[in-house]
Amino acid sequence: MKRNVRFIQGNEAIAAGAIYAGARFYAGYPITPSSEIMADSARLMPKVGGVFLQMEDEIGSIAAVVGASLAGAKAFTATSGPGFSLMQENLGVAVMGEVPCVVVNVQRNGPSTGLATKPGQADIMQIRWGRHGDQSVIALSPASVGECFLLTVQAFNFAEKFRVPVILAADEVVAHARQNLAMPAPGEIPLVDRKSPTVSPDKYRPFDAESDGIAPLAAYGSEYVFHVSSSMHGPDGYSNNNPENAAWRINQLHRKIEMHRGEIVLTKTYDTDDMDVLLIAYGATTGASRAAALKARKNGIKAGVLQLVTIWPFPDREVKMLAKRVKKIVVPEMNYAGQVAGEVQKVIEPGVELKKVNKYNGQIITPQDILEAL
Amino acid sequence: MLQKTGKKYLKDGVLPHMWCAGCGIGVMLGALLRSFEELGYAKNDVVVVTGIGCTGKADDYLTTNALHTTHGRALAFATGIKAFKPGLKVVVLMGDGDSVTIGGNHFIHAARRNIDLTAIIINNFNFGMTGGQASGTTPSGKISSTTLYGNPERDFDVSALAMAAGASYVARSTPAHAWELTQYIKEALTKKGFSLVEVFSPCPTNYGKNNKMGDPLEMLRWLKEKGVSPEEYERLGELEKDEYFAIGKFCDRDIPDFNTRYEEIRARALSS
Description:
The complex is a heterodimer of chains A (374) and B (272).
Chain A: E1 4-9, H1 10-21, E2 25-28, H2 35-44, E3 51-54, H3 58-70, E4 75-79, H4 81-96, E5 101-109, E6 115-119, H5 124-129, E7 138-140, H6 145-162, E8 165-171, H7 172-176, E9 178-183, E10 227-229, H8 243-259, H9 261-264, E11 267-270, E12 277-281, H10 285-298, E13 303-308, E14 310-312, H11 316-323, E15 328-333, H12 339-347, E16 353-358, H13 367-373
Parallel strand pairs in A: 2-3, 2-4, 4-5, 5-8, 7-8, 12-13, 12-15, 15-16
Antiparallel strand pairs in A: 1-9, 5-6, 7-14, 11-13
Helix pairs in contact in A: 1-2, 1-6, 3-4, 10-13, 11-12
Chain B: H1 25-38, E1 46-50, E2 65-68, H2 74-84, E3 89-95, H3 96-102, H4 104-113, E4 118-123, H5 158-165, E5 169-173, H6 178-190, E6 195-200, H7 204-210, H8 216-226, E7 227-228, H9 230-235, H10 238-243, E8 245-246, E9 248-252, H11 258-271
Parallel strand pairs in B: 1-2, 1-3, 3-4, 4-6, 5-6, 7-8
Antiparallel strand pairs in B: 5-9
């Protein structure tokens, strides 16, 4: 089969992946370093019969995405740190209302306005815990232009299947990297659509989870009339202040992710079979880690790499299993505290040395930086 | 002729409603549901979007599609629904806190974009739910639980704001003018483009009590007596203008709505 190969940027691959996944609604607000996703969406959406909306701010962008999703669209937005901060409250509505949607966060250096054009990986905890209250989300982190495309499709598939917002945790390095991408042919990657109700319209309850933990979701304007609420609600979507109901709802928001953890948690390993040292990487640090590991092997250190493709829910079992086989773990990341390293620390046995490599000056982590830690 | 009650859009077993005696939200909701029935709307063709506050509780009384959202952002959620599915009738119910205090940015941009939504704003000049704090529509000098010695700030004229921002249709009424209110809501629902019905409304529990405006009946009398037509209002002297207010239809103009213009753009994109 002759492939359509394009030399494109990560951000362009994300927009292309979204269209491929069936996204037909984009609402957003311009922000560096994510703007190319918006520009491409503005160009492509009208051509595929979709809707592109430039909203007045990021608060409105995620709100419009949630509204469009409930009207039946596969919907998404893209932003960076400051915009992602603004989106948190309404992202909570998507969690509470179990509304499928995808939010791309092209991470840049912070805090606050920070270095707007420089990379960061310091939003890992915000992605997981940025909203108030108990909730659970899925986050995926692409490490290449190819993964920008594939994981965007995966993000939509997870969002649709589990009725949950999925955050694509990209970073400026990956988003602006240019690589060859063999565009997948239509139908080559399976696409998932949300489960539609099959009961008669008078019996439909939008939060009545089936045995797989997921409730079917109708669309506004279909024969099904339904209620979605940011307030605590019962299976019918109407307000419900009963403590038992509240506990059931909170459990449900977590249970549907936990039940399907095996399917959601994606990792890749490189040269881990005989390793003495494990590098744990995600996003932009993956390439540098693999280069460092290869170099280390030439110097006689058997290094392997675990790439966290899914970062939330955290791949704790995968980390734990590989950590048993090494004496030393190195976690390079573009943040000060070691946000992923902290999660790694939680699951490894005492006696395994955990070495953090942190860079937070807006410069990427190089293989040399990692080699020094080895 | 049988009067339309709008009862089929009202959830069974929810009455009496939660709002205080003398509050205008119930009257507005009754007018809205009667309007739905008179216009022959099916429940699945309508989406009612609410924010947070006293008015934000309205969705729980309805049998139509509904989306209860966050404080100030109802219009942005509604924009996404309408932009993706233009055939839906999307109604946004907000208070003055929701619409022009925390949500002012979405309000002016929804009007500018002229997206075909119907916004109904219960303006009771303060935050009712949280205990009578000042909002963006509390008049200068008035007492609220956060302006104990008088409000140092000026108030928004919500209708004028919507007109200046580009809305297709703007009218103001009160619960003391329930028939007119229903007519305006029906016109707003059928008008293409962004339409606003502002409802000056009594809050006897907070704003009325704080400003010694009397019991619910006296507050209704205030709305009935001080509400005059826009023409009469214009003829008043500057001092009287502080005491009276204009009710009626302020604008009803034909401007292409967002979806109509987007369809044109989409056709252009497809042919490019």
